[in-house]
Design a protein that fits this description.
The chain is an alpha+beta fold. The chain contains seven helices and five strands; from the N terminus they run ααβααβααβαββ. The chain has a three-stranded antiparallel sheet. Strands 4-5 form a two-stranded parallel sheet. The protein starts with a helix and ends with a strand.
């Protein structure tokens, strides 16, 4: 890449780093993502006993605690959403010793919930196949040269033909 674009190797490496990791000011760098998880501090039996004795009266607090009993580790935003609660309810439960809120580093996976289906290769038109045959013929004969390919934008003119062809076809 450095030879092709006439630049420093360090500039090439910087292009491959995630955004925000190369800034000199450390405060401006991207930090690892941390999320707050909520856990029960008391046992299920203790909580159910206190609900029966009416020591916990708030419907939202009861709903929040029941949701936590059913689910061991819950993200704070998910707890608030699914238990139809609020952050003040969770903070009250934390203050009263029922729950604990812990910040944890979360690894990000952009493909976690994506279902990527394999597609089939597109078929070239007769005109495209004719141009492709000329280009591949030149590559196979080790006669590396430039080709001017005409076509509408987005018609795959700049497709990489072969890893041995360093220049590859050009579009103008």
């Amino acid at each position: 890449m450095a030879n092709k674009y006439f630049c420093n190797i360090s500039d090439c490496i910087k292009l491959m780093l995630p955004p925000g990791t190369t800034t000199k000011n450390i405060e401006n760098r991207i930090k690892d993502k941390e999320m707050k998880f909520v856990y029960l501090k008391k046992s299920e039996e203790e909580i159910e006993e206190e609900i029966e004795k009416k020591q916990i009266k708030s419907e939202k607090q009861i709903r929040t605690l029941e949701f936590l009993i059913e689910n061991d580790e819950v993200l704070l935003p998910e707890l608030i959403e699914f238990a139809e609660s609020s952050s003040s309810v969770v903070k009250t439960l934390q203050k009263n010793g029922y729950v604990e809120i812990i910040s944890k580093e979360v690894k990000r996976n952009p493909f976690k919930n994506k279902n990527i289906a394999k597609t089939e290769n597109l078929k070239l038109t007769k005109e495209q196949q004719k141009a492709m045959n000329k280009i591949e013929g030149a590559i196979n004969d080790k006669n590396f040269k430039e080709f001017l390919i005409h076509g509408v934008t987005g018609s795959r003119k700049n497709r990489n033909i072969s890893p041995t062809n360093r220049k590859g076809p050009r579009k103008r």
